């Protein structure tokens, strides 16, 4: 068992990585008697999106909690509610490694500087010298001076009044990573596993204790006890000590070690109890341990919810009522013994800024309060309302024209005219002429581009007493392909299974696959593909595949098993669900087919590769370069590619630029260097050494990636005409011809009639602009992947002389798109659809013409669409999740012949349930070996089957007493018997 330690600048809480993924026991059932501490607050600190929390410290003078991050920033929080008090930058780039509270301010230590800041954030002084290099820890001495240590041989004592280094003492070891204060000693610990006790006045060495043979992780001292945790050197590697070592400072001897249920990383004594301390693991578990009582199982094991991030630092309050944890994800977690905790028993008041006097609110319907009650803002420039006089003029309302009926009947008496009311207008009614009578939008609301077409929405059918037998699926599918029913749990993957079905090499390989495993997804996919071949347009059920899918532990671990209880989880994050399912299926099918190929290669003595590796696999070369010119390179096989997006931008980025950025990755990471013996910044370079036959692209599953993708689609939507253009209402190589031809008199005939549909064969609309291309070209040249756009370029056949040496190129075409559809009119009804480009082989297999055609698969609904609609995306309701690009010659590179995997041995099995029940009498004669060769082709046999009900029918009774079926019963085959004459 090997452990890798990440940046052992270390003992300030550097995270540890366990390469073998140690599994800790599950304490959710509770082995403790009571839960002592509970989570009070968990917040994202300033700069937490980029840097982790490197150190935390409770202020011993005021009710404040301080933290420093790896970017050199400090933030303080007031009281247990963690209200932000101050936030300021300590160093431009170096991380804050230690914080010590002082009466005059807060001391913060970086690798090469010391700074004291007032609690309001103003700097008091900064100190740098030649001795202060690669510092790590500090502590206040009883005389009021500051003692500092680091990864060098010197202990530096600094007078805080004069800022002079009054004493520099060399330590026995090469470093000092931890400093602790004790009434009798100053304790220092190094990374070699030793703890040294110094005289607090002269700093001379009094005692040295060898605690761990490998490395010291943390220690604390209280009273007469010293407790440590760390690592031991075993067989040349570091191994974590899963126990605490206890030493008695009175006799300088070790006591009985305390075993732990998890690998300890950090520990602190709880001041209120002389013999109790808190122990923390890297994964966020912590437990109260009594050094006088080795039965630590009586204490509850708490779990800090870090979301998978490592715990970097930890501190306890002087009142022992609160614990603070900082993790690598930039979160600060506060645990308390009660809902209202105090950090210190006696606090001095914290100075806050003067509060702004609030204005008396004025109701919007108040007609009495003058507007002068609202004070004017203080500004030196002129107000925007101060217009010059030349811009202002008095404008009166024009006199409306008099009705001609009134003028004709008016009688003048001197200067006054009188006329009767014509009665053509109601009282107080005045005509009002609109300046613009046009609609807000030239597109009607019914067929606007922002409304989701019905073929993309989740299809619902009403069941009858006969179940699915009386449902006319021709309303949803007028093609010869078969859809999949969506009434089973986890049927969200139906449309993604259709993509695997139309990959011809994969379909042929899975139809030829058969193994002895009880739950094999490859076998179940082969059976499902056989049903889709023979169903002739009727919908099928993927019940057997989904049953085997639920038994895979990895599928449940990735959150791919969705039941009725967590149905809302699926609706909230469908893009993550789709991409996780695609990644899992490729890896699972690769593992299952590779096992069978390994067995065949052992028998034949030859090397074989799985169909998944030959189809989706690409050799990925990865190289990590350190500053010391050490390079670590390795070559792996990847089955899919994750698109890497840049930071959020307001410009439209081409898809091919993002693809080339994702295939040739150059980034800066932090990794372990064997030459430097520490974690350091490295330059990682990744590029493809071979091209896959089918390129699978994940479009991004995190929230920032989805937001970036939506912003790009919105920019494209605003810059072009993105109205959907679909196929006309006539079948393009997808409907069956009517057997009666032109003499058919049925007006509602669902088959194709040439004389009726010729009028709809108008020219298709021109392609609209799409973010992703319908095709491109990949070329590997000199370790660099080059992406070229060839969707609109004419095909050029390269001459043999013009082909460059040491280069590989391939042209790819868009084969399938998996998208998440958002219902804009009803929340919670998001859907997953697939657009698939079916080739000539798929059409001929289903009795169609040899041509290419795009189809929209929505469970049992299958509709033909144009290539432009398949590539169409919309930032409001159609977001792509997974893209499949296939080589143009992918079918020519693989064997598409299907071999029957069922041998003759299955006919010789004489399995009988009656024999198991104790009945030795068998009423049938099993098929013998001699009879296998004499059975003629076409001989009639009788078959019998029994079925069992897995799930009962779900129905509801309406208020009028009628019964409505919500979900039909689910049945499965239990026995199949074949009887010969």
Walkthrough of the structure:
This is PAN2-PAN3 deadenylation complex catalytic subunit PAN2. Residues 482-888 form the USP domain. One of its GO terms (molecular function) is poly(A)-specific ribonuclease activity. This protein has 981 residues and is an alpha+beta fold. It has 3 domains: 38-336, Methylamine Dehydrogenase, Chain H (7 Propeller), CATH 2.130.10; 464-595 and 610-718 and 773-790 and 806-902, Cysteine proteinases (Cathepsin B, Chain A), CATH 3.90.70.10; 908-980, no CATH class. The protein is 14% helix and 31% strand. Strands 37, 40, 41, 42, 43, 44, 45, 46 and 47 form a 9-stranded mixed β-sheet that branches. A hairpin with a 2-residue loop joins strand 21 (225-234) and strand 22 (237-240). Helix 3 (504-511) packs across helix 4 (521-534) and helix 4 packs antiparallel against helix 5 (543-550). 32% of the residues are buried.
Task: List its traits.
disordered N terminus, 3 domains, 16 helices, Methylamine Dehydrogenase, Chain H, 981 residues, six-stranded antiparallel beta sheet, alpha+beta, Cathepsin B, Chain A, globular
Secondary structure elements and their pairing?
Blueprint: E1 3-5, E2 16-18, E3 38-44, E4 53-58, E5 64-69, E6 73-78, E7 83-89, E8 98-101, E9 106-109, E10 114-117, E11 123-127, E12 135-140, E13 146-150, E14 154-159, E15 164-170, E16 178-181, E17 186-189, E18 194-198, E19 205-210, E20 215-222, E21 225-234, E22 237-240, E23 243-248, E24 253-254, E25 258-259, E26 264-269, E27 276-281, E28 285-290, E29 301-303, E30 311-316, E31 322-327, E32 331-336, H1 404-408, E33 411-413, E34 416-418, H2 494-501, H3 504-511, H4 521-534, H5 543-550, H6 553-557, H7 567-572, H8 574-604, H9 611-616, E35 618-625, E36 631-638, E37 641-642, H10 655-663, E38 665-673, E39 678-688, E40 694-698, H11 703-719, H12 754-757, E41 775-781, E42 784-789, E43 807-821, E44 831-838, H13 840-845, E45 853-858, E46 861-865, H14 867-871, E47 878-887, H15 913-916, H16 929-934, E48 942-951, E49 954-957, E50 963-967, E51 970-979
Parallel strand pairs: 37-40
Antiparallel strand pairs: 1-2, 3-32, 4-5, 5-6, 6-7, 8-9, 9-10, 10-11, 12-13, 13-14, 14-15, 16-17, 17-18, 18-19, 20-21, 21-22, 21-23, 23-24, 23-25, 26-27, 27-28, 28-29, 30-31, 31-32, 33-34, 35-36, 35-39, 38-39, 40-47, 41-42, 41-43, 43-44, 43-47, 44-45, 45-46, 48-51, 49-50
């Amino acid at each position: 068992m090997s452990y890798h330690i990440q940046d052992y600048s270390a003992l300030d809480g550097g995270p540890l990585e366990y390469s073998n993924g140690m599994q800790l026991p599950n304490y959710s059932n509770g082995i403790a008697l009571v839960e002592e501490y509970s989570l009070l607050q968990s917040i994202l600190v300033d700069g937490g999106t980029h840097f982790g929390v490197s150190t935390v410290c409770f202020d011993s003078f005021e009710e404040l909690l301080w933290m420093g991050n790896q970017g050199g920033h400090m933030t303080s929080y007031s009281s247990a509610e963690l209200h932000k008090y101050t936030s300021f930058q300590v160093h431009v780039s170096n991380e804050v490694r230690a914080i010590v509270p002082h009466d005059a301010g807060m001391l913060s230590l970086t690798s090469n500087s010391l700074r004291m800041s007032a609690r309001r954030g103003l700097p008091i002084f900064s100190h740098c010298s030649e001795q202060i290099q690669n510092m790590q820890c500090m502590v206040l001495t009883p005389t009021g001076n500051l003692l500092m240590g680091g990864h060098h041989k010197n202990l530096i004592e600094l007078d805080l009044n004069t800022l002079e280094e009054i004493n520099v003492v060399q330590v026995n070891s090469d470093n000092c990573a931890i400093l602790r204060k004790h009434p009798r000693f100053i304790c220092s610990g190094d990374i070699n596993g030793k703890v040294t006790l110094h005289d607090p006045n002269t700093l001379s060495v009094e005692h040295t204790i060898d605690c761990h043979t490998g490395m010291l992780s943390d220690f604390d001292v209280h009273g007469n006890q010293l407790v440590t945790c760390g690592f031991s050197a075993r067989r040349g590697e570091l191994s974590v000590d899963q126990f605490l070592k206890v030493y008695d400072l009175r006799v300088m001897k070790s006591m009985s070690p305390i075993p732990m249920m998890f690998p300890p990383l950090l520990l602190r004594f709880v001041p209120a109890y002389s013999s109790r301390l808190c122990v923390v693991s890297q994964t966020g578990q912590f437990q109260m341990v009594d050094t006088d009582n080795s039965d630590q199982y009586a204490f509850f094991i708490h779990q800090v919810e870090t979301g998978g991030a490592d715990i970097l630092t930890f501190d306890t309050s002087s009142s022992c009522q609160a614990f603070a944890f900082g993790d690598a994800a930039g979160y600060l977690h506060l645990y308390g013994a009660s809902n209202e905790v105090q950090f210190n028993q006696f606090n001095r008041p914290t100075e806050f800024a003067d509060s702004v006097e609030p204005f008396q609110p004025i109701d919007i319907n108040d007609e009495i309060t003058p507007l002068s009650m609202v004070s004017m803002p203080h500004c030196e420039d002129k107000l925007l309302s101060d217009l010059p006089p030349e811009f202002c003029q008095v404008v009166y309302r024009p006199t409306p024209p008099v009705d001609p009926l009134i003028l004709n009947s008016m009688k003048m008496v001197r200067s006054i005219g009188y006329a009767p009311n014509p009665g053509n207008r109601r009282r107080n009614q005045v005509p009002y002429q609109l300046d613009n009578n046009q609609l807000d939008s030239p597109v009607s609301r019914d067929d606007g581009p922002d409304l989701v077409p019905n073929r993309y929405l989740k299809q619902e059918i009403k069941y009858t007493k006969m179940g699915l037998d009386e449902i006319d699926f021709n309303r949803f599918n007028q093609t010869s392909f078969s859809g999949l029913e969506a009434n089973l749990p986890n049927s969200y993957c139906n449309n993604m299974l259709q993509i695997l079905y139309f990959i011809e090499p994969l379909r042929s390989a899975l139809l030829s696959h058969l193994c002895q495993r009880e739950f094999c997804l490859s076998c179940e996919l082969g059976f499902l593909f056989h049903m889709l071949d023979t169903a002739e347009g009727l919908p099928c059920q993927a019940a057997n595949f989904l049953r085997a899918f639920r038994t895979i532990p990895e599928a449940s671990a990735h959150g791919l098993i969705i039941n009725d209880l967590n149905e809302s989880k699926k609706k909230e994050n469908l893009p993550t669900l789709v991409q996780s399912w695609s990644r899992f299926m490729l890896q699972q099918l690769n593992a299952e087919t590779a096992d069978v190929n390994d067995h065949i290669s052992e028998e034949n003595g030859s090397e074989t590769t799985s169909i998944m590796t030959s189809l989706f696999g690409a050799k990925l070369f990865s190289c990590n370069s350190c500053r010391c010119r050490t390079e670590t390179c390795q070559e792996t096989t990847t089955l899919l590619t994750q698109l890497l997006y840049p930071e959020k931008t307001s410009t439209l980025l081409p898809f091919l630029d993002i693809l080339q950025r994702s295939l040739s990755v150059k980034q800066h990471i932090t990794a372990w260097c064997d030459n430097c013996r520490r974690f350091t910044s490295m330059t990682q370079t990744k590029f493809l050494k071979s091209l896959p036959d089918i390129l699978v692209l994940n479009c991004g599953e995190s929230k920032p990636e989805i937001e970036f993708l939506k912003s790009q689609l919105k920019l494209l939507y605003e810059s072009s005409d993105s109205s959907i253009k679909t196929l006309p209402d006539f079948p393009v190589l997808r409907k069956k011809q009517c057997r009666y031809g032109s003499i058919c008199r049925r007006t509602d005939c669902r088959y194709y009639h040439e004389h009726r549909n010729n009028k709809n064969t108008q020219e298709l609309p021109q392609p609209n602009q799409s973010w992703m291309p319908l095709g491109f070209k990949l070329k590997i040249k000199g370790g660099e992947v080059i992406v070229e756009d060839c969707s609109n370029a004419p095909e050029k056949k390269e001459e043999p002389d013009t082909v460059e040496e040491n280069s590989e190129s391939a042209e790819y075409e868009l084969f399938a798109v998996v998208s998440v559809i958002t219902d804009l009119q009803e929340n919670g009804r998001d859907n997953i659809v697939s657009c698939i480009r079916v080739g000539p082989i798929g059409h001929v297999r289903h009795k169609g013409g040899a041509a290419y055609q795009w189809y929209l698969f929505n469970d049992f609904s299958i509709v033909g669409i144009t290539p432009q609609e398949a590539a169409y995306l919309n930032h409001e309701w159609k977001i792509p999740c997974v893209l499949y690009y296939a080589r143009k010659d992918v079918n020519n590179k693989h064997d598409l012949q299907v071999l029957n995997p069922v041998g003759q041995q299955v006919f010789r099995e004489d399995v009988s349930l009656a024999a198991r029940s104790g009945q030795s009498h068998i009423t049938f004669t099993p098929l013998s070996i001699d009879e296998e060769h004499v059975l003629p082709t076409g001989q009639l046999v009788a078959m019998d089957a029994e079925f069992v009900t897995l799930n009962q029918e779900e129905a509801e009774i309406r208020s009028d007493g009628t019964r409505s079926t919500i979900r039909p019963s689910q049945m499965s085959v239990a026995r199949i018997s074949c009887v010969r004459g």
